Amino acid sequence: MTFDIAAIRSRFPALLDGYAYLDGAAGTQTPSSVIDAISTAYRVGIGNVGGPFPASARSTAIVADARQAVADLVGGDPSGVVFGPNSTTLIYRFAHTLAADWQEGDEIVVSRLDHDANVRPWVQAAARAGAVVRWAEVDVDTGELPADQYDALIGDRTKLVAVTAASNILGTRPDVAAITAKAHAAGALTFVDGVHSTPHDLPDVRALGADFYVTSAYKWAGPHIGALIADPALLETLHPEKLMPSPDRVPDRFETGTAPFADLAGVTAAVEHLAGLALPRPSLSRRERLRVSMEAVGAHERDLFEVLLGGLAGLPDVTLYGKPAERTAIAYFRVAGRTPAAVAEHLAVSGVNVWHGHSYAWELTGALGLRDSGGAVRAGLAHYNDRADVDRLLTAVAELTGAG
């Protein structure tokens, strides 16, 4: 197994600008293979699906290929892959559909760990239905989401349990399989937000126990496309609002409007990019190539993160938030005497891209006591980051603390 970081970085034209892109948790850069796939789709000609001409057939094939690619990535069924403009839109769409059967007194369970996209749509849908919202709390000292609390949260009236596979600011990886098992024992559905976790750890929707799983291609080197994955048999039981002439088959009936065909070609290319990161044997299936590559990605990111986390922890006046046992390579921190915005601005001047604020972890930053005072600075690693990126951030932060 080979992980050639220099070769990988050479695939990303954007990295030539000299900046350290440590903002991957908000969206990754795009390799040439994805850019080429999108531009090729436009160059050769595409048309809407269902026509008798070659351009229409090309679009049909692009959609089918993209469904298969996403299914390979998450361990799902291509007939259960639903595309949308982003994960937030997909969650709202499914919240509206699922809540149509909720009654007053039914219950849902959401967590304070989640991105608000996997909280607010459910809370709002529950309010419309008269359902009760129960909250899973975070240990603010460690950043953990204890699974045992769900024993008291889930009951006979529970309709749905929504939980993230990884926090987008602390990196916490809760025991999703344990949580979903408790939900299923009570007859509830599970909705897992895999947007932050997917780029760092090859998902397996069946092992996670996810009835619904969402991911966003632009978090793993693809275009701005969201995907929801579910068992096609489950999707057959759901009937979303849609236009009368639009297809009624699964999964098409969940996709409103005309698909962005060229971008879907980029989705397939992005999955292929991930599958080729560790140069595995071409005889392997794409799922197996993904497994080998993502194991290499995980090792690479863990090594870099050890340097990043250790470097920040060793600086005076730097406070790090969360210390979960299992986490993605992301750091959320503050520098004493500096606002998070000021730190991010200094890093930008130093050629380092990071985000600051609540990063849509609305409930979590509230629980941490950070939301109303500017949140914190978020620096996250992607598979194309290298030691020089990390060193540049540490040097810039050290300048602010007087240690530089």
UniProtKB/TrEMBL annotation:
<feature type="domain" description="Aminotransferase class V">
    <location>
        <begin position="21"/>
        <end position="393"/>
    </location>
</feature>
<dbReference type="InterPro" id="IPR011340">
    <property type="entry name" value="Cys_dSase-rel"/>
</dbReference>
<dbReference type="InterPro" id="IPR015422">
    <property type="entry name" value="PyrdxlP-dep_Trfase_small"/>
</dbReference>
<protein>
    <submittedName>
        <fullName>Cysteine desulfurase-like protein</fullName>
    </submittedName>
</protein>
<dbReference type="InterPro" id="IPR015424">
    <property type="entry name" value="PyrdxlP-dep_Trfase"/>
</dbReference>
<dbReference type="InterPro" id="IPR000192">
    <property type="entry name" value="Aminotrans_V_dom"/>
</dbReference>
<dbReference type="InterPro" id="IPR015421">
    <property type="entry name" value="PyrdxlP-dep_Trfase_major"/>
</dbReference>
<dbReference type="Pfam" id="PF00266">
    <property type="entry name" value="Aminotran_5"/>
</dbReference>
